[in-house]
Model the fold of this input.
Amino acid sequence: MILSKNIKKKGLNFMKIKEIKEKIKIGIDKIGFAMPKYFLDIRDLALGRNENENKFVKGLMQSEMSIAPVTDDIVSLGASAAEQILDEEDKKNIEMVIVGTESGIDQSKASAVFIHNLLKIQPFARCIEIKEACYGATAALSFAKNYIEKNENASVLVIASDTAKYGINTPGESTQGAGSIAMLIKKEPKIAVINDESICQTRDIMDFWRPNYSDFPIVDGHFSTKQYLDCLTTTFEEYKKRYSQDLTDFDAFCFHLPFPKLGLKAINSIFAKKVEKEEKNKFLEKFHASIVYGKRVGNIYTGSLYLSFLSLLENCDNLKTGDKIGMYSYGSGAVCEFFNLTLVDGFKSHLRNDRLNDFDNRKQLSIKEYEDMFFEKIILNEEGNCDFSNNRFIQESDNAFVLEKVEN
Ligand code: HMG
Done:
């Protein structure tokens, strides 16, 4: 838009021409999700661990957990999620691939480099991995938005990919899972705009971490849930103060969901006690739509918040263009962010309405099969190679990519 303004100074006429660019809208244009073919019923886990099943079904509000065989890692799941949504034109326009993960397969090489090759994205792209526990993909979104602000015609592929494993017979075992979300970020998005307002908070705490010497995270479970909730309430208070907004400015909320019950505690924690029951029920109805997928997948770390978002969009009939969704991202350690998205015109037509079939088509595992599958390690032969090509997991997989071989 060109604005011109006459400035009269000392009898001379100056014309000031100022180009004011309308701020471009940047956000989620496409969103895909991939998970392994296998799941464990949470009641079978309870039975196997001598726990009352209601502790997991009601106490955590979990019903199933996705179980990844050794042939489904963050690269194969991440690339499979992206392959569902990208067309050839997208692959020509992607200038950056960012993977948020805390289940890295290499300390040095970014998983995004493998994914870039598998998807045949044009070569002049930047590929990186971002780590901060479950928060990584949210940082990636912000990085993507900043990049597109300066490179308007570019797209960025953001992938959140993780396998959450706590180990057999640990308190965290009922909160495991595996899966990947892929999001294409570009200007004039077809699903949701990422708005500018956001508040982060960092606390150097030891609630959950996984040092190099340990296969599994070290967790102070109850402390971690307190920190998650306290980070939410303090960050949301700061958000309301800085942006002069309140609950009434939002139409729904999505939370990072290590287990769905924590999301319920989260929504209760941001409601003032005096809020009308009717108003709260409106949010609770949407909350229940946002946990449909998470209940059946478990914690997928970096992708968990975005799976809640996808679940809300695909399972709620009460959303409309312009609705503002509050998003709470939390990564142990800890970094959190409260930000928001606005749904754009026609968003529903860029989603699926049959995704629950994918969940129903998975294979159920017995507790013994789960233990053997989820905790199997890659064992290299003397030459440093490993070949899974005859493995039944590869034949059974519905995903576009699987890990076939490790070659020295
Ligand atoms: P726990 O200590 O074994 O379970 O493990 P509990 O005793 O606290 O019971 C769980 C709930 O079940 C409780 O509900 C019980 O009352 C209820 P609450 O009181 O909290 O509402 N319960 C029952 N309900 C009905 N009938 C029954 C029954 N028995 C009990 N018979 C814990 C729970 C979450 C601590 C554990 O699973 C764990 O350590 N998980 C891993 C850590 C975690 O998920 N933390 C969440 C916050 S941190 C985060 O989100 C980051 C993370 O995603 C990692 C990252 O950022 O990378 C984890």
In short: The longest helix spans residues 221-243. The chain has a mean pLDDT of 94.
